[in-house]
Amino acid sequence: MSVSKFEISNGAQGLFVKNSRFKTTLVSVNFYLPLNKDKVARYALLPFILTTCGKDYPSFRKLNFKLSKLYGAELTASAEKIGDYQLLKMSVSVIGDKYALDGEILTQEAIELLTSLIFEPKVQDNSFFKEDVEREKRKAIEHIKGEYSEKRVYAKNRLIEEMYKNDCYGVPKCGTIEDVEAIDGDNLFSAWQEMLQNAFIRVNVVSNSMPKGLFDSIGEKLSAVERNNITDISNTIPTKPANEVNTITERTEINQGKLVMGFSLQKFGGDVSTADSFVATDIFGGGPYSKLFSNVREKMSLCYYCAARSVRVKGLVTVESGIEAVNAEKAQKAILEQLKSLQDGNLSDDEFNSSILGLCDSLKSYNDRSEAIELWYSTRISDKELLSPEEFAEKVKLVTKDDVIKAANGIKLHTVFLLLPEVDK
Amino acid sequence: MKRETFESSLGESYVKAVCSSGVTVYVMEKPEYSSSFAIFGTKYGSIDNCFSVNGGEPKKVPDGIAHYLEHKLFESEDGDAFSKFAKTGASANAFTSFDRTCYLFSCSDNVYENLKILLDFVQHPYFTEETVRKEQGIIGQEIKMYDDSPSWRVTFNMLENMYHNHPVKIDIAGTVDSIAKINADLLYECYNTFYNPSNMFICVVGNVDTEEVLSICETNVKTKSPIDIKRIFECEPQTIIKPYVEQNLSVANPMFCLGFKQKIETPFRRLKSKICVGLLLEVICGECSPLYEDLINKGLINDEFSYEYFNGYDYACVMFTGESSEPKTVEEAIKKEIDNIRQNGIDKKLFSAVKCGMYGDAVRRYNSVSEICMNFAESAIFDYDMFEEIRLLKTVTLDDVYKRLDIFDNDLSVLSVIKPLEK
Fold this sequence. Notes:
The structure holds two protein chains of two kinds. Chain A has helices at 40-50, 60-69, 107-119, 130-149, 151-163, 177-181, 185-198, 214-223, 271-285, 291-299, 328-343, 349-364, 370-379, 389-397, 401-408; strands at 2-9, 12-18, 24-34, 74-82, 85-95, 123-124, 127-128, 200-207, 246-252, 257-265, 303-311, 316-323, 411-421. By secondary structure, chain A is of the alpha+beta class.
């Protein structure tokens, strides 16, 4: 396996991850734009509308027919928050030509399809068609509403919203229902132009061989666009510690309560500088050897799940757990006691070694999943130098127990969100 | 050791062997991969709540016991299995479904040591009344989590109204009341019945050497006298209980699950039937179908829409699930489309496209060591060669698929709906 980087044009990079183990080629075009409350919803709608129809494929049935004939080529779209940026991703994954039963050419066609959808949308008079916009708006609104139905997702979203009230990171990744309602064919067309003009672009390819002419063809298409104001993706503002912990409680008709806690992280940023925070969060609440799993779940039987995750680029740690309402206070206390214990230096060799071994083992397996490798490279925006999962594993191995304890001491409680049943159960 | 090698047109091959203990082992080498994935499973799931051994008296056990046993097997006298895997860096887990319980790990290093740990802990049950009682809290929380999950509830409400007696209608984890009846003796009894090597399988895929894996399985799985397990189900009438059921939950969008119960005469479906029904579902409402486009354009479904042929020992039905403000309109549209296809036949171009798509999906699955391993488990339960899927997808005809329309009987359909709470 090897990774090569190419400059496609101003603010556009290509990355070729040569990997011979897959039967597929994956091409992913990533657009990075600043998170902006006024524009987040229309930007987020772009990957979806662009991958459901195009100039040559006016209906999604026609498009899906084409994808099926390309042996189930998978066209996917997403809009995510990466630090203070919005990542709009459109990808295609297709099986190798040699697996086609009648000698069809698959890879080249699938890639041309993806680029045509992105650069030649189905538009008229500088506007997307009303029926397409309304269809995608309805789906987006139902998706936003749907997040309320899965309470684990809802509770986490509410925590982030409360924790970052005055920070762009608090903006929901697809905007609010009102934001989506305000989208029309004209402003969506402007958003598409802004995406092409202002986004930092990274095209990632995971394949056995580099598809011919891909980066050149994207460079050519971009040369027709004025790209003078390209997004600098290195300016995420870190989470500031809270002066006072904010606790929000909501009640609804549920059986199991959700306790979600947000912490600020003193050591933040890219992989190179934060391997210690990565290990500290894992020992706090990552694998089954972690303090939260082995104590709060196994020994105290307080929750079925209780896990800590870090978003180091933003300097954020979250703990999520499902609890009985009557145990809410007890669980919160227990979680904070586990953090305090780690901060006080209670860190056994077993805990430390298990974490390093477990993290390095799973980092090594990234290369066995093409979507995972692509995601690895597309979500790392703070490091000047792009580390591979194995190279990052080498940094993890250098972390010492003292580093972990120091990093843990930089984890400070910021906001607590509790979702409880109407009546305590 | 009895062994056989299977090869596919994709250039993959695997070995299936039966060790002297009676356990069946599947190994596929993927030398170019960094990691490996392994499953030690038993053909024992939530539906096995009544059984007899070696022709003896039927034994009825509390609902949720297979899942409870899965939780407890991770413990042993000398520490839990997680702590053993923690020393090697593997990531371990387990799951229980209707017809199987699987223990698994994935790892990049120390695969043989991990395999030994896996084989060892699954073969060493250790529970006391105290450790069994302790688990009730955690599993109770797990049950409550599922009670709040609208996608889980919408499916089980459908199954509860489709099946009169078959235990597939019962929640996999049981209920807070049923798990309160579980004790150490019952767990040992179920363990000694279903965790017999002759009822178990091992699947290993990844950066491994077949001979080494087989030798570890041969040495580390203990022989027990083979037993004859009989699953005992009450007779299932060829009818449903109620065609419509709804529940109010804390959701924003209404959800639905539409099921069609299949009249079956034998416990298992053949692989070819499964593939044909899969293709038929694509023809009826896949992303290339006129119906899907119509439902999306009319605002009746969204990207959450999905469908599956849900089948296992002595149960089979087709399910369509999704979010919709008008579930009954979706139900009518699906039934109308099925009638339409029945009368006018399957569109040839559509058939050729969906067949091509499904073939590509099948090829794609060989990208992932975990997916291959899960497929091995499936082929172990239903006893077929995994590569048969690729061969059948090349040869299956439009007529084969058309014939499967007989599984849709409107008198055997159940619509389950989850509605938002009334304020």
